Amino acid sequence: MRYIKDIPHEFYKISLYRWNEKYIIKFEAGGRYEQVYKVDETDITSEDELDRIVDGAMIAAVRKRFDEMHADWQATLLRNEIIF
Questions:
Q1: Which of 11, 2, 14 is nearest to 53 (CA)?
Q2: Do the Cβ atoms of 5 and 18 come closer than 8 Å?
């Protein structure tokens, strides 16, 4: 996997990679959760389009999913009596 660059964001680490004829957009939150989106190279005409994909609506969807991931994690810890 070849690192391309980071997209600056105040809350998330957003990294772009290229691997197996795909671009990979990786979102990281707090070192605990990750979301990865793969884009076929043939679906875009330039790497600049990847920056445009990560717009406000995409960030809002990512934030919602991270919140859901965190809730799922907390629920399993409680359900299994790992935390009280």
A1: 14
A2: no
Burial of 23 (0-12, 13-18, 19+ CB in 10 A): buried
**7-48 pLDDT per residue, tens:** 999 999 999 999 999 999 999 999 999 999 999 999 999 989
Residues 6+ apart with CB under 8 A from 35: 26, 27, 62, 65, 66
| CB proximity list for 4: less than 8 A, separation 6 or greater | 16, 17, 18, 23, 47
Give the total residue count for the chain. 84
Give SS3 for 9: coil
Give dist(CA 66, CA 84) in Å, integer: 22
| CA atoms of 10 and 52, how far apart (whole Å) | 17
